[in-house]
Amino acid sequence: MKRFNWSRFLAILVKEFRQIARDKPSVIMAVGMPVIMLLLFGYAVNTDVDHMPTVVWDQSMSQDSREVISSLRNSTYLDPDFYVRGYDEIRRYLDGSSARVAVIIPPDYGKQVQGSGNTTVQVLVDGSDPTAARAAMSAVQTVGFNTGWEVQADRLAQQGGATPVLPVQVETRVWYNPDMKSLVFNIPALIGLIIQNVIAMLTAFSLVREKERGTLEQLVVTPVRPTELMLGKLVPFVIIAFVSLMLILSVGILWFGVPPKGSLLLLILLSMLFVTTVLAIGLLISTISRTQLQAMQMTILLILPSILLSGFIFPRETMPLFLKGLGGIVPLTYFLVIVRGIFLKGIGLEYLWKETLVLATFSLVLFFLAAKRFRKNLD
Amino acid sequence: MEKTELAIDCRGLVKRFGNYTAVEGVTFQLPTGAIMGFVGPNGAGKTTTIRLLCGVLMPTEGHATVLGFDVKTQPEEIKQHIGYMSQKFSLYEDLTVRENIDFYAGIYNLTGTFAAERKQQVIERIGLNERLPQLVQSLSGGWKQRVALACALLHEPKLLVLDEPTAGVDPVSRRVFWQIIHKLAQEGMTILVSTHYMDEADTCDYLGFVFYGRLIAFGTPAEMKAKENKANLDDLFIYYVEREAVDDPRNKGNR
């Protein structure tokens, strides 16, 4: 009698599919939400800083000052679109956030450059947003250094010397994401985050609903076994999760143009491992909560720290040890390493085996806990 | 031989939840094919006793066999052979009548042509033919009750357990429902039913009066009325409640 029975398992499976098919909001949530979230996040979570509005007070009005301004524009980081006279106007632009950067060129700029003197260009940066401020500063530093170097080279050439060469040069080359686009970094991570949020919520809801409506009480009096009920409820979500995964992978690859460098098959396999972990989390939530509202709150309790601690937005390397440790118990943390590794670096299991092992352990432990609590719930 | 004659054999059944004793030493024997009514005020322990007999709860003390199966060691066998229905009519509201019936047929492991025949028999018997494609949530209370009964009868249970099946159902539906119950009993099915309606209790073969977790009286309705010299069950019920309430230690604590 204790054996797994296919007829009972199939009865539950069919019933689940019928309920899901009839529950339009759930279908929309499972299929539509991931894509909408990916589109929203894909455009909103963009930490690239360029084309910052810039205000210029050009007191020199010379050929040379115009050259500096156009090299600033050519850097693509700054858009020197506003021209003013006086600090009052500059303050107004910066206070009102119409401009993030102000460039002030002194009256004798052209004269000093043409002659043999020294001059200083002043740059004011709105430091409210440190990331933007840092990008602006490094852009103007580079432009300043290059301009200075060219002027110095011209002067030496006029004196009849050879074109000077810098004795030490640094040559940088960026790997994996050569254009340093944040989209390329974020899209893979989003796939993990979205799968986690949607699947955890759907799974938790489906079981709590039976509790809330009293149908679980009826099932308890039937010969149905906990494993049959649990698997019958989970299998539809594995299928839904797979469809969602394929959908957002396609949007990520085709719409955002972020193809994985590594093996697509490995990516899908490890994603399904992550889905299994999330299903276990959803199951655990459903065994703890009594109402759908509680399940919802608990899912949010899971989602929030996983966004902050997993390295989705903030790099884990710079976190205090305690928070880093907390992030270590969030499964998403490990999946992000996997999905970014495969997407950006094209690496395989030879590097990702540790994360894969951790995820597998997570899902085993969580399933064990959930199954244990689930049984207790029924008895 | 005793096993085949007694549908329920219950001896000194006790269930404690922590310090709270929900069921205290319930003992009774119910012969096969009889209808037994379970009466008593809310919170008396009717539902807990029923859940003990269904193999859902483990008794703390005592023994009970249901259809010859031990509630402690063979709960799964009991579940396969009994039909259960509660006042909530725990159906899937977002499924149709037919889908609910299909689901429970699968849950009771009915397959193939046998399943189809059983479903058709039950559907005709309960008169659900015209309601099959309808969503359960659009049915009235009386119809939901009938669908729930149909689901509980699919696997031809030898014992039907009904926990306040007629609560919140209109009088006509109640009468139709009890006609079916009596018909089933005539065909040899044993029925254990808890109720608050004394007119329903009066038609049972046996009555058990549960109060504060104890079975304070058990017998045929006529015997019970004669014993306390009461004209009808309503008077008997009130008499028992008033007599027992004085003895209850919890009441003394509250006053």
Automatic annotation (TrEMBL), chain A:
Residues 133-377 form the ABC transmembrane type-2 domain. It comes from Heliobacterium mobile (Heliobacillus mobilis). It is found in: Cell membrane. This is Transport permease protein. The chain crosses the membrane at residues 27-45, 183-208, 234-258, 264-286, 298-315, 321-339, 351-371. Keywords: Cell membrane, Membrane, Transmembrane, Transmembrane helix, Transport. Pfam families: ABC2_membrane_3. The keyword Cell membrane applies. It is a multi-pass membrane protein. GO terms for cellular component: ATP-binding cassette (ABC) transporter complex. PROSITE patterns: ABC_TM2. Its main location: membrane. It comes from the Bacteria. One of its GO terms (molecular function) is ABC-type transporter activity. Belongs to the ABC-2 integral membrane protein family.
UniProtKB/TrEMBL annotation, chain B:
SUPFAM superfamilies: P-loop containing nucleoside triphosphate hydrolases. PROSITE patterns: ABC_TRANSPORTER_1 (PS00211), ABC_TRANSPORTER_2 (PS50893). Keywords: ATP-binding, Nucleotide-binding. InterPro entries: AAA+_ATPase (IPR003593), ABC_transporter-like_ATP-bd (IPR003439), ABC_transporter-like_CS (IPR017871), P-loop_NTPase (IPR027417). The keyword 4Fe-4S does not apply. The keyword Nucleotide-binding applies. Coiled coil: none annotated. Residues 8-237 form the ABC transporter domain. Pfam families: ABC_tran. Transmembrane segments: none annotated. One of its GO terms (molecular function) is ATP hydrolysis activity. This is ATP-binding cassette domain-containing protein. It comes from Heliobacterium mobile.
